[in-house]
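Quick log. Single chain, no ligands specified.
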Amino acid sequence: GNEVTGLILDNGDLYMLYTDISGSRLGGVIHGTSTITDLTLKSNNTKDYSVEGYGILNASVSATVSPSESLNGGITYENGYTEPFTLAYDNYYDLTPSIEMITGDFLGEINTSLGYEMAAFRVSSDGTVVGIGETGCKVIGTASPHKSGNLYNVSLTFDRETCTFGGQLFNGIIFYNSYNGTITSAIQNRDRSEGILYFADKQ
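-> predicted structure:
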């Protein structure tokens, strides 16, 4: 089945990255703003950015939180269908991120609702990020350690001349797995009408 990685940020942002049914590649990302009251998590403005051809779906999330243990709940879509999930806490999230960890070159696949392509990115020691896709689309931006949790903030602007999303600013997160040298990034534009996923290996 689908493998899911969930991240709840200190500002309430909720990310759920999931694979396709084979578990071999990313299937999409779910993003919303969440609140937790009496150990119940709610997010009513959730969007599911599918890169499997299902487009961008509106949804809501409800789950029971067991601090430092688990998150159990479901994602309910506008058609009434609910997809249940059970996530176990990973103390890898407790590690402290540093820009040095993600400094270097990355090569992988960038996914949008329109399709996917290979793309190369470079993160410099000052946090500058530059990238180019195989179609020639260029991006530039910045990355920095998030103040809480083992992840990074990222902002990228797409080149007006070479990119489908030319001139648009996308913001989101980078999650770096130091065990296997991979990064997963999920970003959205300002009105959340488009989400982009990037999964890459450190070179």
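Residues 15 and 31 are 5 Å apart (CA to CA).
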